[in-house]
């Protein structure tokens, strides 16, 4: 009994020392071959819809695995897409990945009392969940930042960071 009390108190003291701002979801990609491979996978998953002349620019890709993401993260991403639908920057791309078509993907938007955006240059529907096959995400919304045809940063959002991560993605100063 005494050991468990000491253990619990020790654990609480350790947890109190961790500040929320210290938690990060960002990973820098330092391997040149991995940077190239990830960029090529992003081009493949986007059906090469990024114009050739823009591929060397600073780009950002948000992948939302609607079936694999936790409900909280999925909801926040969908809310952010709807909120920013009119002002998404031309160097941003959103890939919605699922094992199903427009009807299935749209149902997740309907659950949030929103409509799936259509006819948008920045929206790519991955109805075969190819992003998962290419290992572009685990179970979380994932953002890749690229420049000069290389992916240099990956952000794998978690519930504690998703708001900040989305704010960075939708802002003009995230590079």
Describe this structure in words.
With 175 residues, the chain is α/β, with parallel strands linked by helices. The protein has one domain (24-170): Glutaredoxin, CATH 3.40.30. Helix content is 37%, strand content 19%. It has helices at 2-16, 32-45, 71-83, 102-111, 130-133, 162-170, and strands spanning 26-28, 59-65, 92-97, 123-126, 142-147, 150-156. The chain has a six-stranded mixed beta sheet with strand order 1-6-5-2-3-4, sandwiched between helices. The N and C termini lie far apart (52 Å). Residues 7-18 have low confidence and may be disordered.
Topology:
Layout: H1 2-16, E1 26-28, H2 32-45, E2 59-65, H3 71-83, E3 92-97, H4 102-111, E4 123-126, H5 130-133, E5 142-147, E6 150-156, H6 162-170
Parallel strand pairs: 2-3, 3-4
Antiparallel strand pairs: 1-6, 2-5, 5-6
Helix pairs in contact: 3-6
H/E order of the elements? Answer: HEHEHEHEHEEH
Shape type: globular
Q: Main sheet? A: 6 strands, mixed
Strand content: 15-25%
What's the number of structural domains? 1
Our measurement of the CA-to-CA distance between the termini, rounded to an integer number of angstroms, reads: 52 Å
Give the strand tally: 6
Question: Which structural class is indicated by helix and strand composition?
Answer: alpha/beta
- Under the CATH scheme, the architecture is 3-Layer(aba) Sandwich
Uncertain runs: 7-18
